[in-house]
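Why do we care about 3D structure at all? Because function follows from shape, and shape follows, mostly, from sequence. That is the central idea of this module. The next example makes it concrete: a single protein chain, its amino acid sequence, and then its structure expressed as tokens.
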Amino acid sequence: MELAERISRLGTETAFAVSAEAAELARSGKKVYPFHLGDMNIPTPENIIEATIKAMKDGKTGYCSNYGLYELREALAEDVSKSHGVPYSAKNVAIQPGGKPLIGKFILAMMNPGDEVLYPNPGYPIYESQINFHGGKAIPYRYVEGKDDFKLPLDEIEKSITPKTRLFILNDPQNPLGAQCTREELEGLAQIVLRHNLFVLCDEAYFDMRYEGPAHSLVSLPGMAERCLILYTFSKKYAMTGWRLGAAIGPEELIDTIAKLNVNDES
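And the structure:
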């Protein structure tokens, strides 16, 4: 079978291969400490399960808008508006089958073949995979080790930007390092984004996974809400990794485009 050439550019998430091997070891009786996947060791809360069962029994099992259920979009807009200090409405939200599909949709909507996209390395492997798959050039940026944590090297990031650079992917808090940008780092990054007319995917899968203190988002800074798309997922916050439920939150025009892509993939 001769596959399309672009398939050769499609990477994978090797953590699932490791997961299969780990599962086999566990079945053989060995003790496995599951650091390979960002899964939860607690079940989905009972009230979520009960509400879902009730909705299905009430007949809510048919098609909905390609934007997702209005009530859910409205609730998410209200919640994220409070946490991020940005006045979002339901028009700024499109529901997704998990967070991961939004990576490809953002790139598909915003990147032309040949454009450069800055992504974190080490980082989630699907960033690089989707950039390459859609014909872009994946440019990695790194974190550097500080005294107590990892830092964003803003000077190095800016030096890697060229006239072809179009997009920036920010995973904050970062997987796998656990790093979180300081307010000063976010402010410096915002200035870079504005100077170079970039657009940002803010992957905030771990935004609410904290032991103490408030979380901060690039979206909250002046001029950033118009240039950022938030990748929101229920997987970590609500222990719903297997439910495949997430959302795109951002500028209305981009949300409309994401919703059109939803129609095309019937997600």
